[in-house]
Amino acid sequence: MENRMELRFDALPQNEAFARVVIAAFAVQLCPTLPEMADIKTAVSEAVTNAIIHGYRGEGGTVTMTADFGERKMLTISIHDDGCGIRDVEAAMQPFYSTGDGAERSGMGFCVMQTFMDAVEVDSVPGEGTTVTLRKYILGEAGLHRERMLDEIG
Amino acid sequence: MTVWPYQEAVTVVIGGELDHCSAPQVRQQLDDLLLDESIVHVVLDLENLTFMDSSGIGVLLGRLRKLAARGGSLSVKGMQPSVEKLFRLSGLDRVIGIADGRKGGRA
Ligand SMILES: Nc1ncnc2c1ncn2[C@@H]1O[C@H](COP(=O)(O)OP(=O)(O)OP(=O)(O)O)[C@@H](O)[C@H]1O
Ligand SMILES: [Mg+2]
Fold it and tell me: pTM value?
């Protein structure tokens, strides 16, 4: 089975939870485990929040989230904003790097995305916008068996 | 949010989802509580917290800073596995105690 979705929404904080609910409802078709689902929701929340607070600097705009998967249960999610863009992507992805000084930002967003997903790509053009692409191979119950086995081996 | 004193530590229950959208309200409620200078040790009961992202890390670290400045401490208890994963990934477990003396999340 293959499937694709696209969602466009205003860059408002209340849409962070909305985007999480939508991606969960889409991803459930791949039968992820609860931990896998939590990982996906958290990574999406990071990217959407970044689009709203950094990309659009809290001044609003439109965020686009697309997602698709194919036979191989590889979930691909893209979060796009037409905001300010990132001048130095490599620096921005370093743990603890944050331009949100004063707003109690920890600079952990990209680090969370990288840990919770299998791959994170950032395409950004200063002054034009940013697209963050998140990929995760959904193992489902098989992943739980694998983890249990690895635990037993030690 | 429910607040009640437990010995000299104050326990605060935070439920629901802690993200960039809900952070200002949670931050404000905790800071209102911390206006009382006699409160130095705070335990956050996160049993009903179903979601947290990096915005929550910022809220926790900000409150820890305030409490540490008055010689106090911040700890958490009852974390769900997904919240605990983020908590450990971001290294919060090195500065914020886990008050339920439990290693690893509940199933
Ligand atoms: N969509 C975006 N548009 C413009 N800049 C961005 C975008 N996403 C991230 N950035 C930049 O990358 C930096 C790092 O992002 P990251 O999510 O890792 O940390 P943060 O958002 O600053 O803090 P945290 O996520 O821990 O609250 C941001 O501070 C910002 O400068
Ligand atoms: Mg962020």
Answer: 0.92
